[in-house]
Amino acid sequence: MPDLPAMSHPVKRSVTIGGHRTSVSLEDAFWRELREIAKGRAETTAALIAAIDAARPPEVGLATALRLYVLSEVLKRQSLA
């Protein structure tokens, strides 16, 4: 049986992207990691989310893009360790 991490329901948060308000639902672990990544880049979480939004293909939802970005950053960090 796999060793599962603590799990939570997705949490919906409002963000402003390009002057427009939108809501994004992510699990708490992804919100925490996004904040840490933004902090490490010396930018706000909203700015990081806006940058990810601008770079994602239109057929990929914002929540999916955010999760995949976080996964990519965590994997990069692990490969450097």
Describe this structure in words.
The structure is a single chain. By secondary structure, the protein is of the alpha+beta class. It has one domain. 53% of the residues lie in helices and 17% in strands. It contains 3 helices and 2 strands. The chain has helices spanning 28-40, 45-55, 62-80; strands spanning 11-17, 20-26. It is globular and about 45 Å long. Pfam families: RHH_4. This is Ribbon-helix-helix domain-containing protein. Residues 10-73 form the Ribbon-helix-helix domain.
Using brief descriptors, characterize the structure shown.
alpha+beta; 17% strand; 2 strands; globular; 3 helices; 53% helix; 81 residues
- Give the helices and strands as they follow along the chain: EEHHH
* Radius of gyration, taken over Cα atoms and rounded to an integer in Å: 13 Å
* Poorly predicted runs: none
Shape call:
globular
Beta-strand percentage?
15-25%
Secondary structure tally, helices: 3
Structural class: alpha+beta
Instruction: List the strand order in the largest sheet.
Output: 1-2
For the record, the count of structural domains works out to: 1
Organism: Paracoccus broussonetiae
InterPro entries: RHH_dom, RHH_sf
Domain Ribbon-helix-helix: 10-73
Protein name: Ribbon-helix-helix domain-containing protein
